[in-house]
Write a structure and sequence with these properties.
The complex is a heterodimer of chains A (about 750) and B (about 325). With about 750 residues, chain A is α/β, with parallel strands linked by helices. Among the domains of chain A are: about 5-25 and about 490-605, no CATH class; about 45-150, no CATH class; about 665-740, Alpha-Beta Plaits. Helix content of chain A is about 45%, strand content about 10%. Chain A has 24 helices and 21 strands. In chain A, helix 15 links the parallel strand 8 (about 405-410) and strand 9. In chain A, helix 6 packs antiparallel against helix 9 (about 235-250), helix 9 (about 235-250) packs antiparallel against helix 10 (about 280-305) and helix 23 runs parallel beside helix 24. With about 325 residues, chain B is α/β, with parallel strands linked by helices. A nine-stranded mixed beta sheet of chain B has the order 2-1-3-4-6-5-9-7-8, sandwiched between helices. In chain B, helix 10 links the parallel strand 7 and strand 8. The chains are: A alpha/beta (about 750), B alpha/beta (about 325). Chains A and B meet through helix 6, helix 10 and helix 11 of A and helix 1, helix 3 and helix 10 of B.
Chain lengths: ~750, ~325
């Protein structure tokens, strides 16, 4: 072992001899990130356009998808289309550059700025062509909204935008319902008023007809007539009061506000606000508003009952008298706007975190956005237990454990991909926690926030997952980890190509591990030591391979990561044992998450194994039996052809009646009144309004026979006469014959 | 999302009405004894009782004729309207009050003669309601004149030498209209089957049209006797998506055909049968568009919005004095 290598092994095992001095070479980044120096020339999910909710329900679009949408409309195939595509893609790049220079604008403004910039930079001929392309009909974006890039502020802006869209929809529905309740309640009072003496007064009657009637109508006479009409059905005083009180509460509510109210009633109190920067504050305000919520829920309940005419004072008065905050059901809470709380991990103290947990376990509709800029933690870690990665995952993990909260964890680079889940979480009836990693320029100065966030997700340091309690009853339906890159494996693997010293292309598969993510954080430089190319040998193995080795196998190996410097020269850096331990821990956490998400689930695998054993034994036994019996195959069984039309199941015939007893085939009765009119004591209708014989002795045999003759559907059977003294029996028995 | 709070449901068990069939009965029907309308009335009242439909949520609309007296006999909302205009009135009610269950009772004259134009368009508009055509093939209320569905040769006061033309076929006509969504046929003398058809029609979303072949014992006493006395002349349509073949039905009606209600071509063939009366569901299409669903507006018609919109509309035709023009139009 060369001296240099010996030093590296010592560094790996003890962490001594590395340090910032050995990584002075600035601009080092993971080799896999080498191609992404200038993001403005790449087409990817960012920048995002925060659009108004459209028919598709989208609230955010990527700039590329907007440009693609325009091109789909206007660019034909062929040379002409190619020119248009090339010009619009240049326009898109110009917009990205403007944004990276700090321009803040809406899409339409940015589009115009980029257009002018491109035209001013082009010579006359190409400007002419460019102008022609960009001024095509349909060549402008169909959507508009703020354009944002991926930075510290991105999650807050996206979530606030999405939250507003959800709340506006909820407000719109609630206001429509409240307006309808108000309209109908007012209708009841109005109808009641019309029955009053005041409404029947000649003046009031004349007023209701308008001015044009003049003297052609005698309202005095009308008033006199109307006063003779009874007003018995007018409302009771308590009902009128109850309806008025409900109207007053519905009219003065402050929870819902029209999206754009043209003129605000100056006498009306301002609507409530629902966006906070502190969980404690949101919680306090929520508590303060509970009495108002109770009043509104009561008013809606009373209104619904009144409108259905189902309010019973004997029962509902008591119910509404004792109606308080404990009576609020989850569906009542779901009517109200949710509270958006925006937190930042660096400002988030212990008490605030505790309140967060409390809020999430309470089931209240708080939507908590926690933005993480640092998941690795500060250098103080070097002295104590190495708990890298656990810091950022703590809150989301606890929230999932609470079972009733919607939880979304994702890097900010992935926000566009999880846009539907964001909406689901914000629309979810209960609490929601959104834990979003944004990256930090401070800790990783060499990387744009987008790349740092994406690295956190790639490296499993901050895996994406969503836990949606509304998605189903079990974990399989609720927890989704599918959004992670190559979710089936420990570390995602990508191909990496470079040029060696002989100028030959070399391609290899490289895994992106937790170590790669930590490598871009300047605070962790001391955990890496560069290996001079002269010392590169077989003992150096990639960190991802090293992590798979058992302790004994790893003894003579040294893990490294590939990185590139500012000039894109490939470097190998040895990783110290401490960071390797952290990577193992990260990998374990990822596997646990995989299991919860149904990937390599140990319970399922065990069960599969057991079932396979049982199945194999069963098959073996069957084979054994067959071998032992070794008898000819049984004779084939004739198969009955199935009828084309399945015959209905045959029901036993109804029991035979005595031919002497009169009866009616009741189910066939057509309610024609013939028999019941003939003798209502003998024949009557049952609960289905079909005839039966209630009392054969309630009439004469003659009536029975006449009923049988009159019956339209011939279902009355008169039987034999009960009274042998009845006159004319011989003839009646003869007439009864066809019906018996 | 539809707003609904928990409180009204709290005591739902205690304020629930138990409706009996008698609760739906209003005055004693003035139809002749033996009239098929009585069977239809009983079936509808049974349906209301079995579904426990609140009286105030029901409305029966009719035109003119014997059958159109129907609303008088239901203790619910009703509208006994103009001849032939039951359907437009019912459509207006449904548009304004989609929460009500709307039933239409109309006769062969009311629907197929004076109201024929409304009938066709109502089928196409497919608004959610249950339409019962009481078809006795004669005008009973005015004492025996030929109706559009009277068969060729039927002697009546207006056709003493027998009807000259073939009768109009309400099933075939309905099945020819675009956007038709439910067509069924029943006979009044098979009450269990009639009930089943009305029940399925009630649960159908869209306009369900039932032609009910109905006896008039007063003016055509033996008109349907051949069908009543010979069960072979009824063709029972059965299907798992229609009326299933129960043992009772199968025993009563030996002539059966398994007919898939989604098959409109076969439905049209069945509708055109002349030797037998097909009974069952001929056609059903749950996907047909309902007019009220596509024209519905989100805007609530409060007195204020009505006034504002009306003012805006009238302002378009207002001739403004020159001095007020600017302010008035602003």
């Amino acid at each position: 072992m060369s001296t240099g290598l010996r030093e590296l092994v010592r560094f790996h095992l003890t962490g001594d001899g590395g340090g910032d001095d050995r990584r002075e070479e600035s601009g080092l980044r993971s080799a896999l990130l080498a191609p992404y120096r200038d993001l403005s020339v790449l087409r990817y999910d960012f920048p995002l356009v925060l659009v108004e909710r459209d028919d598709d329900g989208a609230i955010v679009r990527s700039l590329s998808s907007v440009v693609d949408g325009v091109l789909r409309e206007i660019a034909p195939t062929g040379a002409e289309g190619e020119r248009l595509r090339s010009h619009y893609l240049r326009l898109e790049t110009a917009m990205r550059v403007l944004l990276s220079e700090g321009v803040e604008a809406t899409l339409s403004e940015l589009w115009g700025l980029a257009e002018r910039k491109l035209l001013s930079e082009s010579d006359e001929t190409s400007a002419e062509l460019l102008r022609d392309s960009l001024s095509r009909p349909g060549g402008a974006p169909r959507v508009d909204g703020e354009v944002i890039d991926c930075d510290d502020d991105t999650p807050a802006r996206v979530f606030e935008h999405a939250w507003r869209a959800v709340q506006q929809e909820r407000s719109r529905i609630a206001l429509a319902e409240i307006d309808e309740l108000l309209l109908k309640l007012s209708g009841i009072l109005e109808a009641d008023f019309q029955k009053s003496a005041e409404a029947r007064d000649p003046k009031s009657l004349a007023g209701s007809m308008g001015d044009h009637v003049g003297d052609t109508f005698d309202f005095e006479a009308m008033s006199r007539v109307l006063r003779t009409v009874s007003s018995e059905s007018s409302l009771s005083g308590s009902r009128r009061e109850r309806i008025r009180s409900a109207i007053s509460v519905l009219e003065s509510q402050r929870f819902f506000e029209p999206a754009a109210e043209p003129v605000r009633d100056p006498g009306r109190a301002a609507a409530h606000s629902f966006v906070f920067d502190s969980c404690t504050r949101a919680w306090e305000i929520f508590r303060e508003r509970i009495p108002e919520m109770v009043e509104l829920v009561k008013a809606i309940g009373i209104a619904e009952l009144e409108l259905d005419n189902r309010y019973r004072e004997s029962e509902h008065d008591a119910l509404f008298d004792r109606f308080d905050e404990t009576s609020l059901a989850p569906e009542d809470l779901a009517l109200f706007p949710s509270y958006l709380v925006r937190l930042h991990d660096k400002d988030c103290e212990g008490s605030e975190k505790a309140r967060c947990i409390e809020a999430l376990s309470s089931g209240l509709p708080l939507k908590i956005l926690v933005q993480m800029s640092d998941i690795l933690g500060g250098p103080a870690l070097a002295n104590g237990q190495f708990t890298l990665g656990a810091r950022g995952l703590q809150l989301a993990g606890m929230a999932v454990g609470m079972n009733g909260s919607f939880v979304l964890q994702s890097a900010s680079s992935n926000l566009y991909q999880v846009r539907d889940r964001i909406l689901r979480g914000l629309s979810y009836e209960g609490p929601a926690l959104f834990s979003i990693f944004t990256g930090s320029v401070e800790n990783a100065p060499g990387l744009p926030p987008y790349l740092e966030a994406a690295s956190a997700m790639q490296s499993r340091a901050f895996p994406a997952f969503a836990y949606d309690p509304a998605a189903g009853p079990d974990w399989a339906a609720r927890l989704d980890v599918a959004g992670n890159p190559q979710a089936e494996v420990d570390w995602p693997v990508h191909s990496f190509s470079y040029e060696d010293a002989d100028l030959q292309r070399v391609s290899e598969e490289v895994a992106f591990t937790f170590v790669d993510f930590a490598a871009s954080d300047k605070r962790y430089a001391r955990h890496f030591a560069p290996v001079p190319p002269g010392d590169w040998n077989e003992s150096l193995i990639p960190a991802s391979e090293y992590l798979e080795l058992a302790d004994a196998e790893a003894l003579d190996k040294v893990p490294y990561v590939s990185m590139v410097n500012g000039d894109d020269v490939l470097q190998k850096l040895v990783v110290d044992q401490q960071l390797i331990r952290a990577a193992r821990r990260c990998s374990e956490m990822w596997r646990a998450l995989q299991e919860l998400g149904g990937i390599h689930n140990s319970h399922a695998l065990n069960l599969l194994e057991r079932e396979r054993d049982v199945w194999e034994r069963e098959k073996e036994r069957e084979l054994e039996e067959l071998r032992e019996r070794a008898v000819p195959a049984p004779a084939s069984v004739a198969i009955q052809p199935a009828d084309a039309i399945p015959a209905p199941a045959v029901e036993p015939e109804p029991e035979e009646r005595s031919a002497d007893e009169p009866y009616i085939e009741t189910p066939r009765c057509t309610t024609c009144d013939e028999c019941t009119e003939l003798n209502g004591r003998m024949f009557a209708y049952d609960e289905n309004k079909q005839a039966h014989i209630v009392d054969p002795s309630a009439g004469t045999y003659r009536e029975l026979v006449e009923a049988a003759e009159a019956c339209q559907v011939c279902i009355i059977h008169p039987g034999k006469p009960r009274n042998s003294d009845e006159p004319g029996l011989d003839e009646l028995i003869r007439r009864a014959e066809p019906f018996n | 999302m539809v707003m609904s709070v928990s409180a009204p449901r709290c005591l739902q068990w205690s304020d629930r009405e138990d409706y009996e069939l008698e609760d739906y009965e209003a005055e004693v029907p003035r139809w002749c004894t033996g009239c098929g309308d009585l069977a239809i009335l009983a079936a509808v009242q049974r349906l209301c009782r079995d579904e426990q439909l609140p009286l105030e949520n029901l409305v029966f609309v009719s035109g003119i004729g014997c059958s159109s007296r129907f609303p008088h006999y239901m203790k619910t909302y009703g509208f006994h309207g103009l001849h032939g205009r039951a359907l437009p009135v019912a459509e207006g009610i449904k548009l304004k009050r989609p929460d009500l269950h709307v039933f239409v009772n109309t006769g062969d004259g009311d629907c197929c003669s004076i109201g024929a134009a409304h009938w066709l368009h109502a089928i196409r508009y497919n608004m959610d309601m249950t339409v019962m055509l009481h078809d006795n093939e004669i005008y009973g209320l005015t004492k025996k004149q030929a109706s559009p569905t009277s068969p060729k040769g039927l002697k009546s006061n207006t056709t003493p030498r027998g009807a000259y033309l073939e009768g109009l076929n309400p099933l075939a006509t309905t099945l020819g209209v675009a956007n038709v969504s439910f067509v069924a046929q029943a006979v009044d003398w098979a009450p269990a089957h009639l009930y089943e058809i009305i029940s399925q029609a009630f649960h159908h979303k869209g306009l369900s049209f039932i032609r009910i072949v109905q006896r008039c014992p007063e003016f055509l006493p033996a008109h349907f006797d051949s069908f009543m006395q010979d069960p072979e002349r009824l063709l029972l349509l059965t299907h798992e998506d229609g009326i299933p073949a129960t043992p009772d039905l199968s025993r009563a009606y030996p002539q059966r055909e398994v007919h898939d209600p989604s098959d409109i071509n076969r439905a049209r063939e069945i509708a055109s049968l002349t030797d037998r009366i097909p009974i069952g569901i001929l056609y059903r299409n749950e996907a047909a568009v309902c007019y009220e669903d596509v024209v519905g507006s989100d805007t609530l018609s409060t007195p204020k919005t009505v006034r504002t919109n009306l003012e805006a509309e009238l302002d378009k035709f207002t001739v403004w004095p020159p001095s007020e023009e600017r302010e008035g139009r602003g």
